[in-house]
Design brief:
The structure holds two protein chains of two kinds. Chain A is mainly β. Chain A contains no helices and six strands. Among the domains of chain B are: 246 residues, Metal-dependent hydrolases (TIM Barrel, Alpha-Beta Barrel), CATH 3.20.20.140; 159 residues, no CATH class; 70 residues; 139 residues, no CATH class; 112 residues, Nucleic acid-binding proteins (OB fold (Dihydrolipoamide Acetyltransferase, E2P), Beta Barrel). Classes of the chains: A mainly beta, B alpha/beta. The interface between A and B is medium-sized, with 13 and 19 residues.
């Protein structure tokens, strides 16, 4: 099961040089990324409302798996999903 | 090759993957070089269409080309193949050929047995996401994936089969790569990284999306097969190394693969097939022998031996031909022409080949180069680097027979038609792009019809200059970003190949089996095979091509002559146009009047206009005439000086005395390509080869530096003859101005002959001429409807198609032309011949009789009714219904015994039916199945109104594209008051500078690039044609009316020059607006023919 945020939550993320997430701030606490499990990109609907995102499925230090994405047009990070 | 820090893309699609690749091969090669790749592979889908262009581009960019293809297997999976050497390349060609020829056109598929037979010299990569290994691994079938991999190892060998890893940032890519590496490890296979490239740069992903929609005939919003992201571009070593950071050998292995691939695509050594020669004879010796034998046929029986000028020229040419290794080529072409002659196929050599006396003696060409002072250097010279073209014009209706002969002579394996790529240009780019992007259809259609440019590069500027479209393309309009994308994508798609078509006539003949060199595939025409290269790729690969170009005028003349013979003496041996005197005053009178609709090469508006001024009175004059209205003379500003000199209004002068002998015949003006060469030879000491190179260079876009070098050489050469630099510069500029596009004299001379013959037929045998003209459309400048009206103006009536009289093609009926069924839309060849065959058993008696005997589809019968094909049964009278056949008449098959009685009843039917009644009757007839009793409707009386003239004209245009009865203006004029509107006949009587208004149907509209912004149209009304000139400022104001309206009211001033009348337009108004103005209507009219 997972919890999908219908409206993704904006995140403050610390990235490495290749824009991989290293830590992020969630509910006032800094969370460390332990491992990237999956990574994929989407670039769609450029003709009406362009969507360009890079998704990361990560395991955080506590062991929880989360899905983050970076909006490639703005550079802003979002939390999309938390897996139970 | 540097192994560290390098990556080579081995899986790359260009736009020759036909709607699945968004970059030209040249762009891919240059981008790869920019990214530091030492090589690049091209792997288009099931084809090597772009191989030669890619090969050349790579060499130019300084990188190594790797030739390959992505093959589709019979199970639908993809496989990437790369040629290691020329054996592998030939196998690739064979594999593609088999996959293309053994399946439905457009659905190539290869079976594994064939793959196994032709696997030598090939490296196989396991393929993309649609590859068999990946498909199996995605669905978790690892063991089966192992079995499949082992099968490929058996086919290609352990060292030639690589597992292909791709990471395009898809969700599953990481997992798949792990599984593939594991599989490779277990089978001790190498693996390589590829990026499944479909465009050179990331930003082209939008274009790729649109191409996908065009391919799938859908829109962006509805397409379900768009790629998830934009990662399918060429990536640098750094990017790829990051993606495969845990598997560096996936990157380094790409270089190891490239090291093994070495293919050479120069096939010039293969080019000539063996020509069957007598024993102990060489091609050169046989050619010389043929010339000696045939010289008497050309120069008459009194020609003793070879003497003087002719002898010298023949010997010189034969030596040159032998030296250039072209003897076999001449023999091949001679053999084709000899076959044509023996079989009564009208054919003639065209182009510069007519400068050759050997070609003339062998009957390849028909113009004597000595008598016509034709200069050989334009065709053959010692320095030639490419094969000279010998193109053959052949009657379109006989062309297929000649093609079949070549196939039989050299064998299917050695012969194929060259293809052409249908590319995106302005109009189709707008239409297809608009459709794929889901833009409003009516708007896209108007844009496509309005655009003036041919190439799609300048679409934005062009559309933005039209007021009604301007809002979509202004940068301030932030609400319309989609339109900005639209024009940007139209620009990008420019010149992309869309699909293949057959070249007009190019036949490839090779000494080795063609499938060793180039893949073959099915053309749209049933049974026809084309090679995957167009004429440029063929020439670049060094292959020989013979052009058999269909020329409809040859068919027309052949057919008209046959009709004349039929009329006068069906038993006579024929009308020999070769013996026709070329000095008939009445023919020239007609030409000088500009009465030349349908006459070869002098029929267009622009070609007609000079005729009354230059007054051609000989075949030499006609030679100049057909060469005069060409972009070369037009752009070089040669036309008006020639006309003025011809009229004696200007003195004939030469820039330098040395030019006099060259330009004397054309009154000091450059008109022919040969003159360009001769001027360079005589004035600047160029060799014929150098001069021909200069001509070629001038006719193409060359860099300024290259052209400056040539100018300097010209000036230096001219100095030796005492020609001052400024004068030499001036002469060079004149050559440059001309060389854009002009005829060579030999070609013009041949065309002049056809011009005279067609004019002679028009003058002396108009019914046969118009009949043949209508049968050979499309061929010239005018639509059939214009030809029909021109025929009427020349006293030749044209009758509508008739169910009991017409044949498939148009025929002559008592001096009148009867339209053939070919003019009725939606009939189809099968239905047409069925109508004729059935009628030959016994004539049709009524619509019911026809319908029940032929059972054609409703639309076909409906169109026949509307085209008037049943009119002869029944004179129109409103209000009465038709009689039906009795059950007995229908159920009994027609036989000799019944014919008399039925014919008797037919005459009684003649009352009261007209087109609407017939349509109603058809509706009842089609409700019955075969063998059923017909519904009785003889007692049913319905009252249906006749068609009005306007309705009748409209349906005429709808079902046959013309009306034999009504001119649109004649019909529409009744609905508007005269209100100052004049007819063409009235205008002809008025003085120059009179201000006039006239309305007409637009039969031609042009805005040639050479006309400095002027536009021209020809309006026709019920009494004749009038030419209208539209100045650039007026054009800007009325551009949309000019381009889109079928019927226009013009206000302007009469201009007269000699016997030529033009209206200089001041305003252009759609006729429908005039009607609305007069009647106070607000709704737009839709009743006009388009």
């Amino acid at each position: 099961m997972s919890r999908l945020f219908r409206e993704a939550i904006k995140l403050e993320v610390q990235e490495d040089i290749q824009h991989n997430p290293v830590t992020f701030l969630y509910k006032g606490r800094r969370v460390g990324v332990a491992e990237t499990l999956k990574r994929w990109r989407v670039a769609q609907e450029w003709w009406k409302s362009p969507v360009e995102r890079e998704y990361f499925q990560v395991r955080i230090e506590s062991g929880t798996v989360c899905e983050l994405y970076r909006n490639l047009l703005t550079g802003v990070w979002y939390l999309q999903r938390i897996y139970d | 090759m540097e192994a560290r820090g390098s990556y080579v893309e081995l899986h790359c699609h260009s736009n020759f993957s036909l709607l699945d690749g968004a970059s030209h091969p040249e762009d891919l090669a240059s981008r790869a070089a920019d990214l530091g790749m030492p090589a690049l592979a091209l792997t288009d889908h099931d084809g090597l269409y772009g191989a030669i262009r890619f090969y050349k581009a790579c060499l130019k960019a300084g990188i190594k080309p790797v030739i390959g293809a992505e093959i589709t297997l019979e199970n639908g999976n993809h496989l990437t193949l790369l040629a290691k050497n020329n054996e592998g390349y030939s196998n690739l060609c064979r594999l593609i050929t088999r996959s293309q020829l053994e399946h439905r056109k457009g659905s190539p598929a290869l079976n594994l047995a064939t793959l196994a037979r032709h696997s030598a010299g090939l490296i196989c990569l396991s393929g993309c996401r649609q590859g068999e290994l990946v498909s199996l691994l995605i669905s978790g079938r690892r063991e089966q994936a192992h079995r499949v991999a082992k099968r490929y190892i058996e086919i290609f060998g352990q060292g030639n089969f690589y597992v292909e890893l791709q990471n395009n940032f898809y969700l599953e890519d990481g997992r798949l790569c792990r599984a593939l590496v594991e599989l490779a490890g277990s089978l001790k296979l190498g693996y390589v990284a590829t990026n499944n490239v479909h465009y050179a740069r990331k930003e082209s992903h939008k274009l790729h999306d649109v191409l996908t929609c065009i391919r799938n005939r859908t829109t962006l919003d509805e397409c379900t097969s768009l790629r998830l992201n934009s990662e399918f571009h060429l990536k640098s070593f750094a990017e790829m190394a990051r993606l495969f950071q845990n598997r560096p050998e996936a990157i380094s292995n790409t270089l190891a693969v490239v090291e093994q691939c070495n293919v050479n695509l120069d096939f010039s050594g293969y080019r000539f097939p063996e020509f069957p020669l007598p024993r102990h004879e060489t091609a050169g010796g046989y050619l010389a022998q043929l010339c000696r034998q045939k010289i008497h046929e050309r120069y008459g029986p009194d020609f003793i031996g070879m003497s003087s000028e002719i002898e010298a020229r023949v010997n010189h040419e034969l030596q040159l031909i032998e030296k250039l290794g072209l003897s076999a080529y001449f023999l091949i072409v001679w053999d084709i022409m000899d076959y044509a002659k023996r079989n009564g196929i009208p054919a003639q050599g065209r182009g510069s080949a007519a400068n050759s006396i050997v070609a003339y003696i062998l009957g390849i060409t028909g113009v004597d180069p000595v008598k016509n002072k034709l200069f050989l250097g334009r065709f053959l010279n010692e320095e030639m680097s490419s094969i000279p073209d010998i193109d053959i014009d052949v009657s379109t209706s006989h062309r297929e027979k000649l093609i079949q002969y070549v196939y039989e002579k050299y064998g299917q394996e050695h012969t194929a038609m060259v293809c052409t790529y249908v590319t995106f240009q302005a109009r189709n780019a707008i239409r297809e792009m608009g459709k794929a992007m889901g833009l409003p259809a009516y708007l896209v259609d108007r844009m496509a019809r309005s655009v003036s440019v041919y190439g799609a590069k300048d679409i934005e500027q062009d559309l933005a200059s039209i007021e009604e479209f301007r809002p979509y393309f202004t940068s301030q309009n932030s609400n319309q970003p989609i339109w900005q994308e639209f024009v940007s994508l139209c620009r990008q798609i420019y010149d992309f190949p869309r699909h293949l078509s057959i070249h007009n006539g190019g036949m490839l003949i090779s000494s080795c089996p063609l499938t060793d060199i180039v893949p073959l595939e099915k053309a749209t025409m049933p049974g026809r095979i084309v090679c995957q290269w167009d004429k440029d790729s063929t020439a670049d690969a060094g292959l020989i091509k013979v052009d058999l170009l269909g020329l409809r005028m040859l068919s027309l003349i052949h057919e008209a002559c046959a009709l004349v013979e039929q009329k006068h003496n069906p038993d006579s041996s024929g009308l020999d146009l070769d013996r026709l005197p070329l000095d008939d005053e009445k023919v020239y009178d007609m030409i000088c009047r500009g009465d030349t609709v349908g006459v070869f090469q002098v029929e267009s508006r622009a070609q007609m206009q000079p005729l009354p001024q230059t007054k051609p009175r000989s075949i030499d004059d006609l030679t100049i005439e057909v060469a005069l209205i060409r972009p070369g003379p037009l752009q070089g500003n040669m036309v008006h000086p020639y006309i003025r000199r011809r009229k004696g209004l200007e003195q004939v002068t030469y820039l330098h005395p040395r030019l006099k002998p060259i330009l004397e015949d054309t009154l000091g003006v450059l008109l022919f390509q040969e003159q360009v060469i001769q001027v360079a030879v005589v004035v600047a000491d160029f060799t014929p080869g150098e001069a021909d190179s200069l001509r070629r260079a001038m006719s193409r876009k060359r860099s300024k530096e290259a052209m400056n070098e040539m100018r300097q050489k010209f000036i230096d050469g001219a100095k030796k003859h005492g020609v001052a630099t400024t004068l030499a510069d001036c002469i060079f500029a004149a050559l440059q101005g001309f060389a854009e596009y002009g005829f060579c004299k030999s070609h013009a001379a041949r065309f002049a002959l056809l011009c005279y013959r067609s004019a002679w037929l028009k003058k002396y045998h108009p019914p046969e001429f118009y009949c043949a003209l209508l049968n050979n459309q499309p061929m010239g400048f005018y639509a059939p409807e214009v030809i029909v009206r021109d025929a009427k103006r020349h006293g030749v009536d044209v009758l509508p198609a008739d169910i009991n009289r017409s044949r498939v093609r148009c025929t002559i009926e008592g001096g009148r032309v009867r339209l053939g069924f070919m003019y009725v839309k939606k009939l189809g060849e099968k239905a047409m011949s069925q109508i004729v065959v059935e009628r030959e058993r016994t004539p049709y008696l009524s619509l019911a009789d026809f319908y029940l005997r032929t059972r054609l589809e409703r639309k076909s019968v409906e169109n026949l009714i509307l085209a008037g094909a049943f009119d002869s049964f029944l004179p129109a009278r409103a209000g009465l219904a038709c009689r039906s056949l009795s059950p007995a008449e229908v159920t009994c098959p027609p036989g000799p015994g019944r014919r008399v009685r039925r014919a008797g009843t037919a005459s009684r039917q003649a009352d009261g039916c007209q087109k609407r009644q017939l349509l109603w009757q058809l509706g009842l007839l089609e409700k019955k199945g075969p063998g059923e009793l017909p519904l009785e409707f003889s007692h049913t009386r319905v009252s249906l109104p006749d068609f009005t003239e306007l309705e009748e004209m409209k349906v005429d245009y709808e079902v046959q594209g013309l009306s034999t009865k009504h001119h649109p203006m004649q019909v529409l004029r009744k609905g508007i008051s005269r209100d100052g509107l004049l007819k063409s006949s009235e205008i002809a009587r008025l003085l120059p500078n009179t201000r006039v208004r006239l309305a007409g149907y637009v039969i031609t509209r042009q805005r040639p690039a050479t006309a400095k912004g002027f536009a021209f149209m020809t309006l026709e009304d019920e009494e004749g044609m009038v030419n209208v000139v539209i100045k650039p400022d007026v054009y800007q104001n009325y551009r949309q009316v000019f381009k889109l309206e079928p019927l226009i009211v013009v206000e302007g001033i009469i201009q007269r020059r000699d016997d030529i009348l033009n209206i200089i337009a001041q305003t252009l108004i759609p006729l429908r607006h005039e009607e609305e103005r007069q009647h106070g209507l607000s709704e737009p009219h839709s009743a006009y023919p388009d």
